[in-house]
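--- STAGE predict ---
source: upstream dedup step, 1 unique chain passed
mode: sequence only
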Amino acid sequence: MTSQLTPKLEEVAPGIWSVITSIIPPENGGPNAGFILAGDQVLVIDSLISPSMGQILLKQLAGVTERPITFLINTHIHGDHVGGLPRFLEKNHEITLYLPKSFPTSFKNDMKKYGVEVIEVQEPIKICEHVYSSGDIEGQIREQALFIQSDNGLIVITGCAHPGIVKIVQKAKNMLKDEVLFVMGGFHLGGESKGRLERIVSDFR
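--- STAGE serialize ---
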């Protein structure tokens, strides 16, 4: 059966939007992306699997805000999270692109050809007011996550959480000295037992 990606846009907190795709059959999951409206700043997290999906993502963002994209953050190198980048960069040369330093040099050079500023992230870094990158987290697949400070606690946004979701959550808590309000994104926990999932949730606390 041919896979089909169907983005679903949902505002999960004020100014924070989740874009969720599903692959048929739906239990296989799919790549995710998101938008953050932080004051005058517009942040996009990942760009989905292809230029055509990137175009859909741009249309969804246009329905949320008319402001231009300020920052685009790619969490990790997998194609289902970076495939839509050309659609974002070919017409938006003012974007600042945040990539983990571990991305291949050839990929980073290809992105620079669009005329955008590329920030190579290794250590944790503040992107804008209340929004931080975790830095390039070591794991089987290296990845950066986003941490957002809110009045009610930290919001953690992951791409796929390849280094481990508990590891990422603990890094957010240690880095910003606050408790976690909620976690969103991909966790790569399909097939885990109920007991294992309950232990992970407990570790979040």
